[in-house]
Amino acid sequence: MTRTRKNAYLFGTALSVLSLGMSIDAFAASLETTGKEAGTVESGFGCSGLEDVSELQMIEGKDGMFFRILADMRLQHAFTDQTVDHLAAMAKALEKSGTTLIYVPLPTKSQVLPELVPARASLYGFDANIAAEIYDDVVRRLEAKGVASVDIATPMRQNNKNQFGEYAFFQADFHWTAHGAGIAAKAIADKMKALPAYEGIKPVGFTMQEIKPEPEFSSMRELLQKHCISNVPTVTAHAYEAVREEASADAGSMDIFGGGDEATIALIGTSYSDKPISNFAGYLEHWTGIPVDNYSISGGNQFGSILSYITSREFQEQRPRFMIWENPIYNNLGQYGAAPWAEIVAASLGDCGKTLDVKPVDEKTVAGDLSSLKLSGDDVLLADIGSDVSRNVTFTFTGADGTVRTRSMERGDRLRATGRYFLSLGGIPADAFGKVSVSFDAPVGDTTALSVCKTKTGEQS
């Protein structure tokens, strides 16, 4: 959602200067001189204390480009071999039902614009060559495990500024511009067209037409401006929309309105994919020739959009030909352990053939018997309330010896409420699988169901 905010900041020091008849420009020049004498870095906007801002530590680079110290300067990104294995399992599970996963690690501003990083960044350990190699290593390891992955950092570096002088990223914000999104989308399209899943697709034409950009609110710029005297660059740039050309008479089997052998792309991502001013989804349509359904979520962190979409009935009933998952490289996909991955892989596979007989316990609870099933830590229990009204669920397992164990799951406000929860049974002792009751935060009904799902692609229900 795009918001517009107007804020005026009046600093006591600047007010004092004006009362003495000194101009802002002269005052800024005096600060620069003082800074040089003290051995500090010169600011083009009279900024000070950026590296000590508690909410978001920043550093000023060249040509008005600002970088986040924690996200943009660091060289260590938690992309472990275990994460690669999880993505490989997800890709394999999706492929079983005809969906091809394309994972896109989104580079940082410093990996795309190293020439604008200030020399002072070396004090934080930044090295441009190492930063580039770390990104390349992630793509190589994914490809080696059979996950289609795209290097978008290299083409963005090679074409990081358009004819209007706009960079691939906004100067005072960490998101990419339409120029950066377009370069990335073309690289993804080139990769996609080389995959077997693209064979036989007759692309639909999408033309990019310039539109007037809406004012863009940026929390980073708002915070940044509080520590600068002059106005820092605004978060605006040339913007475009994708306009579908009329389908040709020989469009073949591809029906963009649904039905037939429709080819679609499901875009899963973060705020980078959700911003209208950048229109990443539109550029994907333009370069791939395939309609895009955008399920990205701003503020959903690394798993918000994927869990919202992949657990939905919509995904289970009509799977896309391609799933593009965009995630900033600094997002830690191992932060919450194996639980999110068990849910993602089980939902990707959709092998939930064992349905339990359940009985209502009260208005919001159903119960079932697990004692006759041979369950293991590789299994996943799917609790489906039957509608999209639920955000919370609690599983209560009662073993033969009377021991009670509970597990809870929650969909935050930024996530989509699907009413479907895939609980991994990993870590729960086998003797706990006696009886199970499942309590939702909404009334259950005739369509409420419990099922056992597999996570191994070689298994059959």
UniProtKB/TrEMBL annotation:
Span of domain AlgX/AlgJ SGNH hydrolase-like: 59-328
GO cellular component, one term: periplasmic space
Subcellular location as annotated: Periplasm
Pfam families per the UniProt record, alphabetical: ALGX
Transferase listed as a keyword: yes
One biological process term in Gene Ontology: alginic acid biosynthetic process
Keywords: Alginate biosynthesis, Periplasm, Signal, Transferase
Keyword Signal tagged: yes
Pathway: Glycan biosynthesis; alginate biosynthesis
Protein name: Alginate biosynthesis protein
Annotated source species: Rhizobium glycinendophyticum
